Amino acid sequence: MKRLLARLTVLGAMAAMALAQTAPEAPTAKAPEAPAAKTPAAPAAQAAAPQAPAKAHSRKEMLQSLDLTAAQKQQARSIFRSTRQTMQPLAQQLQQDRQSLKAAVQAGDSAQIQQLSTVMGTLHGQMLGARSAGMAQFYALLTPDQKAKAAQFDPKGE
Hints:
The protein is mainly α.
């Protein structure tokens, strides 16, 4: 049960990070400035880069490589905005429940721990469902060629 809770917590955190990182992709004018600033310290930045940002970087590369039309970009922004709005109250509730769970652990209240763990698992599932539904809407916008390109960036289906 503890492993399941830990896995669900990690999945929820990853989903929240992924959504938070997809929001700023709309302004493409800033993208060229970032690599230019990182050029002198590129080896150090690559050596210190953790795995999660690499996945986010991969997602950003995927979106850029898809060559979305202006209409697709607008629809994608709308889809991702709606998904974030759906997930925001879930994430806030999850944050409150984490604090309550911490207090229950410190108090040794096993009944409260079990109840909060169940609630948090449900919230993680709802967040995963919302994120997946948003991605399904996004993939529905893509042409067959774009879908093939997107599949190359996500070989594991994650």
